[in-house]
């Protein structure tokens, strides 16, 4: 069946450095790729998303890139801050709200 | 955006009992979703609840174990029946407003002893 692989499972970076999380999807029909951030004790919250007709999208310190040929997409966080510490989930979707979720990446920002 | 309130936020339950989780959305929505998140794991969709029709369950989840109600366009409940320790999880209510983004409640953390 369809699946989304997410790496790494844990990422520890120094405050101020960049963090990159990568996901690979299997279903070539997927056309929507969101990234969610889940802070401890809270529900996931969308931080950025990209559709298959776009190769890159940026929102302040956060960017997402998509390579449809290779079927992978990545989350880039620059100038990391302590409040970026959380679990990040990628997902892929081919129809409304039917998401295939990645396993999650725990991002730790070291002071 | 949509604001979702879930109750209870956490509970400790005895094996064999049932618990109903309530989900309230601050606007009328067509689809509501129930997810399970086991400790340290990703999200797994349990079912989709549409107002006025039976919920649609994902593979591995059955109505007898997870009955769902959707009495109106702002409210839904999920019951976890005949609980066992394996049901200890976070249960999340979610909805969308048509643009693709999902909004989540803060979750209901169940511990089954």
Q: Can you tell me about this structure?
A:
The complex is a heterodimer of chains A (111) and B (113). Chain A has 111 residues and is mainly β. Helix content of chain A is 0%, strand content 59%. Chain A has no helices and 11 strands. Chain A is globular. The N and C termini of chain A lie far apart (41 Å). The model of chain A has no long low-confidence stretch (mean pLDDT 95). Chain B is mainly beta. Helix content of chain B is 0%, strand content 51%. In chain B, the strands form 2 sheets. In chain B, strands 2, 4, 5, 6, 9, 10 and 11 form a 7-stranded mixed sheet that branches. Chain B has a 4-stranded antiparallel sheet with strand order 1-3-8-7, with no helix packed on it. In chain B, β5 (44-50) and β6 form a beta hairpin. The mean pLDDT of chain B is 95. Classes of the chains: A mainly beta (111), B mainly beta (113).
Quick take:
Chain A is mainly β. Chain A is built from no helices and eleven strands. In chain A, the strands form two sheets. In chain A, strands 2, 4, 5, 9, 10 and 11 form a six-stranded mixed β-sheet that branches. A five-stranded antiparallel β-sheet of chain A has the order 1-3-8-7-6, with no helix packed on it.
Which protein chains are joined by the largest interface, and how many residues does each one contribute?
Answer: A-B, 19 and 19 residues
SSE string of chain B, helices as H and strands as E: EEEEEEEEEEE
Low-pLDDT stretches of chain A:
none
Shape of chain A: globular
State the secondary-structure class of chain B. Answer: mainly beta
Q: What's the mean pLDDT score of chain A?
A: 95
Could you tell me the strand content of chain A as a percent range? Answer: over 45%
H/E element sequence of chain A: EEEEEEEEEEE
How much is the average pLDDT of chain B?
95
What is the helix tally of chain A? Answer: 0
**Major β-sheet annotation of chain A:** 6 strands, mixed
Radius of gyration of chain A: 13 Å
Number of strands of chain A: 11
Cα-to-Cα separation, first versus last residue of chain A = 41 Å
Q: Main beta sheet of chain B: strand number and arrangement? A: 7 strands, mixed
Q: In angstroms, what is the radius of gyration of chain B?
A: 13 Å
Strand content of chain B: over 45%
Number of DSSP helical runs of chain B: 0
